[in-house]
Design goal:
- The chain folds into three domains: about 5-85, Winged helix-like DNA-binding domain superfamily/Winged helix DNA-binding domain (Arc Repressor Mutant, subunit A, Orthogonal Bundle); about 95-160 and about 265-290, D-Maltodextrin-Binding Protein, domain 2 (3-Layer(aba) Sandwich), CATH 3.40.190; about 165-260, Periplasmic binding protein-like II (D-Maltodextrin-Binding Protein, domain 2).
- The chain is elongated.
- It is built from twelve helices and eleven strands.
- Helix 1 (about 10-20) packs across helix 2 and helix 1 (about 10-20) crosses helix 3 (about 35-45).
- It has helices spanning about 10-20, 20-30, 35-45, 65-85, 100-120, 170-175, 180-185, 200-205, 225-230, 245-250, 270-275, 280-290; strands spanning about 50-55, 60, 95-100, 120-125, 140-145, 155-170, 190-195, 215-220, 235-240, 255, 260-270.
- Strands 3, 4, 5, 6, 7, 8, 9, 10 and 11 form a nine-stranded mixed beta sheet that branches. Strands 1-2 form a two-stranded antiparallel ribbon.
Length: about 300
């Protein structure tokens, strides 16, 4: 095709503009800074003028370079997506997953070795930063989120509905001196999430302040801390399945009632073009298989 720029050098220009540094571009592309400089010179000869201007901190991309690099980035992404959807392509390469910290540490991370054993050619990068689904998934392929319902323009696939159940440690239950689990739940102390306005109202149907039998409220800021506080015998917490399954199975915690379906679910979130990638399809199927294997509930 006539009029095309020197294609081999385009990725050098895109990296140099994005990173605003020939040296950092060279490090990313695993070449020398001199190779990046020569590539930029080749493109500037084709363009017919400079694309970088000299500034106090060195060479800075001019507006033409920034516009050109943006177009290159879009073209490279289009090529990447088209390649990923080639029928019959073997799944391999990189898959970046964003998951909320509690889900990442308590459920996903302990199981990832099974995914790696099943698909050793797929390298998974796990990110537990709290990205906003609507606007902040740059560089993330798939996200796992807890929410009542889908939001935004991404594709949402429900993985599992969350279940809630009051839990405490066996030692705390023994100290309560009663076999009436309803009294144990009512008497507390209750362990609450400070990030939720009134977590216990989802179970009791009333706010904690209305429950005069509750002597103390212990507040923590994460689900993981609530589970650990209950396991340490500090009181009764709202356990959220599947995050609390390990403690229930290992009898670090005791369920004080049968679980109830919560309003929230865990969802796999991404774009249609990402869901079409072989790596994403395999990861999605693996998640479904793992969640189907969750143990059935036992009577408390």
């Amino acid at each position: 095709m006539s009029g095309l720029p020197p294609l081999n050098q385009l990725r050098f220009l895109e990296a140099a503009v994005r990173l605003r540094s020939f040296r950092r571009a060279a490090d990313e592309l695993n070449v020398t800074p001199s190779a990046v400089s020569h590539a930029i010179e080749t493109i500037e000869r084709w363009y017919g003028g400079p694309l970088f201007v000299r500034a106090a901190r060195g060479l800075e991309p001019g507006p033409e370079a920034q516009d050109f690099a943006s177009c290159i980035r879009d073209a490279l992404q289009t090529l990447h997506d088209a390649t990923a959807r080639v029928p019959g392509r073997r799944a391999q390469g990189h898959l970046s997953i964003s998951a909320a910290p509690s889900f990442a540490s308590r459920w996903l991370l302990p199981r990832l070795r099974r995914f790696s054993a099943r698909h050793p050619d797929i390298r998974v990068q796990l990110d537990s930063t709290r990205h906003r689904i609507e606007t902040d998934l740059a560089g993330i392929d798939l996200a796992i989120r807890r929410a009542d319902q889908p939001a935004g323009s991404q594709t949402w696939l429900r993985l599992v509905r969350e279940e809630i159940v009051p839990v405490c440690s066996p030692a705390f239950l023994m100290q309560a001196g009663t076999s009436d689990y309803r009294r144990v739940i009512g008497n507390g102390p209750h362990i609450c999430l400070s990030s939720v306005a009134d977590e216990w109202s989802e179970w009791t149907g009333r706010t904690i302040s209305e429950d005069r039998r509750t002597s103390t409220i212990i507040e923590v800021d994460t689900i993981a801390l609530a589970i650990e506080a209950a396991a340490a015998g500090l009181g009764v917490a709202i356990g959220r399945k599947p995050l609390v399954n390990v403690e229930l199975e290992g009898e670090r915690l005791v369920a004080l009632a049968k679980p109830r379906a919560a309003d929230s679910s865990y969802w796999l979130v991404g774009s249609d073009r990402i869901f079409d990638r072989p790596e994403a399809r395999l990861f999605r199927q693996w998640l479904v298989d793992e969640l189907r294997a969750l143990p059935t509930d036992r009577e408390p």
